[in-house]
Each structure stands twice: as C-alpha cells, then as structure tokens.
Amino acid sequence: MSVLAGCSTEDESTDGSEPESSSENETDGSDDGDDEGDADDGELEGNETDDDDGELEGDDTDEDDDDAEAESEETDDDSAAEEPELSEFTLRVVDANGDPAEAMLVTGEGEPHEADIPLEFTGVTGSEGYHHNRIYENEYTIEIDHPDYEETTIEHTHDGPSEVTVELDVEVDGGDDPAEDGDPTGAEEPEHSELTLRAVDPDGDPIQGAVVRGEGEPHEADIPLEFTGITGGDGYHHNLIYENEYTIEVDHSDYEPTTVEHTHDGDHELTVELEAE
Question: Which pTM does this prediction carry?
Fold first, then answer.
C-alpha cells in the first residue's frame, strides 16, 4: 500500500509539472501573438507614413508646377512688352554761319527697351541740311559726321514729333589735297535724292513697324552707302540717299523678310509687298 502511494505521488507530481509546462507554452503563444500584433501595427504605421509622405511630396510637386507656370506667365508678359509710339523726327544740320550742311551722315542709337524693337537709324542730310525719319519714342544718342567737320554727338529725348538743329562750329582744314579732305581718291560724289519706300501686305494695306535696311554698291568716292529706318502707320519710310545701286531688305516679325534691288537715280517711290509667315 505504501509502495502504491509512493508511485501515485510521483505520477501526480509529474502530472502537476505538465500543466506548468503547458502554462509556459500558453505564455509563449501569447507573446507570439503580441509580436504578430506589433508587426501588423508596424505595417499599418509604415503604410500611413508612406501615404502621408507621398501626399506631401505630391503637394510639393503641384506647388512647383504652379511656380513654373507663374514664371512662364511672367516671361510671356516680359516678351509681350508694349511698344512705344512711333513719331516723326527731323534733324537739321548747319555750319558755323548758319548755312545748311549737306551730305552729313546721321547715325542714331536708342537706349535698350523691354520691347523687341529696332532702336538704330541712319541717313544723310539733303541740300537744305535736313534729315527726316520716323523713330520710336525713346532716349537717343545721335552722331553727325562728315569728312570736312569734326564729328558731333548729341543726346535727344524723343517723346513726340520733334525737330532738332545741330550747329557744326569746327571745320577741318583740308587744304588742297583731296586725301586730306577725307577722300583719298578725289572722286566726285554722286547726287543724293529722296527715297520713299512703302511696305504693304498682300491686300495692299500698310504695314507699320517694318525695318528697312539698305546697302549700296561700293563707290569710288568715300560716301556712306548704308541706311536704316522704320515704316510708320501709313507704311512709309522716307530717306535721303546717294544715287547708286542698292540692295534693300524689309523685315517685320509677322511677315517673311523681303529683299529688293533698287537703282536710285533720282527721287523715287518704291512699294514692297510682304508675305505673311
């Protein structure tokens, strides 16, 4: 009996240890569950973080796009700056005695402007000392030059139709040597006469703001053979040029550039038709 009781006691002890082991297993299982729960929470937190970052990055990209569009609009506004008005400019050049100075080379250059406009012009004074042109309203530096005179420079604010008189009070003494007069060949200068050029579209309507550039054939006399100007609202450009053979280019941003050959042998009116781009 005592032996059986001893055996029974060992079995009970052994059985008692198994629940403890089982309790440990249950605890381990609970821990595993918590770990899996933590992992799930991590995945959720990771997804939330990624989504939030993605949304923020997307918002930043939209803001960058908005900034780029704003910069593009500002650039378009700059490129579409309003042109100033065109108006008549008359320059008269006289000598120290008040007599008209003929065949003076006139070159003008305007201050830079935000609008894309030509700001240079050239021409020659006629027998009465006048040079007529139509130029954009702006600040200009104008040079008057002739082999027999010292070069003269003036500043002119062109803010509407204007007439300016320039007196040349210093004459270069050239003596009897034609080389000292500024013409080493001594060749006779040709006459100069009025050129009236009109730019029109295919319908015959005037084109304003067309740039006119002319270049003459080389001549034995030392004379200026280039001229530039701009057409006005009526499509006209007036200039006084030496009689010669000229290549004249007429250009406008809305039309194809057009080049014509012109024999200038007296007062002429020339019409140039420009084709749309």
Answer: 0.54
